[in-house]
Amino acid sequence: MSVMALLRPTAISNVSEDQFVVVHPLDDVREDKVDTASLGRMSMTPSVKMSLMALRGYLVLMMLLVLYHVIDLSGALGQSTH
Amino acid sequence: MQEKAIVALGSADVQMPAVRGRLVRSKWARNLLTFLVVFGPGLIVMEADNDAGAVSTYVQAGAQYGTRLLWLLLLLLPVTYFIQEMVVRLGIATGKGHATMIYQRFGKWWGLFSLIDLQVVNFLTLVTEFAAIALALGHMNIAPKVGVPVAAVGLMFMVLTGSYRRWERVTVFLCLLDTAWLFIAFKLRPATWGGAVHDMFVAGLPTGGVTTGLVFLMVAIVGTTIAPWQLFFQQSCVADKRLRFADLKWSRLDTFLGAVFTIVVAGCMMVAGNAAKVHGLAFSDPAQLAHDLQPFAGEAVRSGLLLLMINAAVLGTTAISLSSAWAYGEVRGWPHSLEMPVRKAKGFYATYVVCVALAAAIVLIPGAPLQLIIIGVQVLAGIMLPSAIIFLQLLLNDKQVLGDEYVNKPWNNWVNWTIIIVLFILSLILAAQVVAPNLFPAT
């Protein structure tokens, strides 16, 4: 039996004692998940605040470096180092 | 959090509402079959990361340094697994994509920042995928203006069938085609396998020590093995496949096997590049290398390398375009599922089609600044990766979302913060080289 045939689902309505049913997630009843929409925004604990601040600092630094690189390549800082 | 059994244990003859599934008679068969139905997103996200850019990076590493950097790949195996495993947990617990989670938990500013960054990096990466397809087709005497549109149309048909399962089967098949890299590595094997095994398990630097080229290449290897789109892709894929809480252990196994397969294939790429070093060939790109290796390795290796390069680009394109389409669809609130027919998820499919068509069209423009685009991809991906992983880490510590069962354990956090710090340091080294190009010796 090929893998495809093995995975092909059939309609099952009766399961005997020595049998197991394997259902593909897409054929199964939708599972209840966490309602994240009703939770709102993440609470700003000190560690979350610190992480986001570090991220902001990192992004500002990276943007400045990219800007410096572009200005350097344009020759505005004298002879380009590249 | 509710633990839902995905299999009905036959404790007695049970009459139940008709379900579509498979009946098996042993626990062993049940486990195997459950794994097979869950299998897919982990392998695809990992192997699609061995895209055209990755082929180029790994082969270049082999061409310049032989098998000396194989240890770095081995080191990246647990790193890539740990990061994607977190995505799986988040996807299964919420049933939502990564873009939605950032919007909902960090607000519009961070959500928009992540989305725009993702879309820009993804699009530029797509252009490089089609550039690789054009390059490989050129070496096979197929005109890119014919081959590239054909590839683009094929990529569109892959997703427009309205069946997640059909797309997944085709993509898994393409992933498994990459086992041909083992054949390539065998044909181009190093003088002794013992040396390669030594280089895999004993970390060391190539002759010449730390140079600018080596640092850039090592950062590129890390950057190409862990990419931001992977986080968005796998979480959306897990959500689209509607994986259940009970599927978590099988999804972890899928991700782990995917990571192992990907690293093995990446190692084979490095071994293939090593052949250029052995034969004293100058490396410019993998397609040229395939051509140059023909006199030593034969036509099968040449054609194999070119076809695998196209396969890598096709895999990368479908996964990256889907990560863009899922993320954009989630944020816009559009229906966004591969299970939906085109008429019911027009915006989602249109995003995918536009990404693929536009990237293919740019490659066909004569004189398009492809080198600038490749550099742009590296810079933006380098900037985005640490920030994307910080959001992931914060979300995985969010007890309101994950509860006690699925939230990160202390050891998870130690591992993940170590990974984040290393990635930040690598980004800063890259940035420092921009400011001070002579930070490391040139040779």
Write the layout of secondary structure elements.
The complex is a heterodimer of chains A (82) and B (443).
Chain A: H1 3-7, E1 10-15, E2 20-22, H2 46-74
Chain B: E1 7-9, E2 14-24, H1 27-38, H2 41-48, H3 52-65, H4 70-94, H5 98-106, H6 108-139, H7 144-159, H8 164-177, H9 180-187, H10 193-201, H11 212-225, H12 228-240, H13 248-278, H14 286-297, H15 299-332, H16 346-364, H17 370-395, H18 399-406, H19 410-435
Helix pairs in contact in B: 2-8, 2-12, 2-13, 2-15, 3-11, 3-13, 4-10, 4-11, 4-12, 4-13, 4-17, 5-6, 5-15, 6-7, 6-15, 6-16, 6-17, 7-16, 8-15, 9-13, 9-15, 11-19, 12-15, 14-15, 15-16, 17-19
Question: Your description of this structure?
Answer:
The complex is a heterodimer of chains A (82) and B (443). Chain A has 82 residues and is α+β, with helices and mostly antiparallel strands. Helix content of chain A is 41%, strand content 11%. Chain A has a domain at 42-82. Chain A has helices at residues 3-7, 46-74, and strands at residues 10-15, 20-22. Chain A is elongated and about 80 Å long. The model of chain A has no long low-confidence stretch (mean pLDDT 82). With 443 residues, chain B is mainly alpha-helical. Chain B is built from 19 helices and two strands. Chain B has one domain (41-435): Up-down Bundle (Amino acid/polyamine transporter I). At the A-B interface, helix 1, strand 1, strand 2 and helix 2 of A face strand 1, strand 2, helix 1, helix 5 and helix 8 of B.
Task: Supply database-style keywords.
A: 82 residues, alpha+beta, 2 strands, B: 443 residues, 19 helices, disordered N terminus
Shape of chain A: elongated
What is the string of helix and strand elements of chain B?
EEHHHHHHHHHHHHHHHHHHH
Shape of chain B: globular
Please state the structural category of chain A: alpha+beta
Determine the most extensive contact between two protein chains: A-B, 53 and 73 residues
User: Structurally, how many domains make up the residues of chain B?
Assistant: 1
* Low-pLDDT residue intervals, each spanning 5 or more residues of chain B: 1-12
Please indicate the percent range of residues of chain B in DSSP E strands (runs of 2 or more).
under 5%
Mean pLDDT of chain B: 90
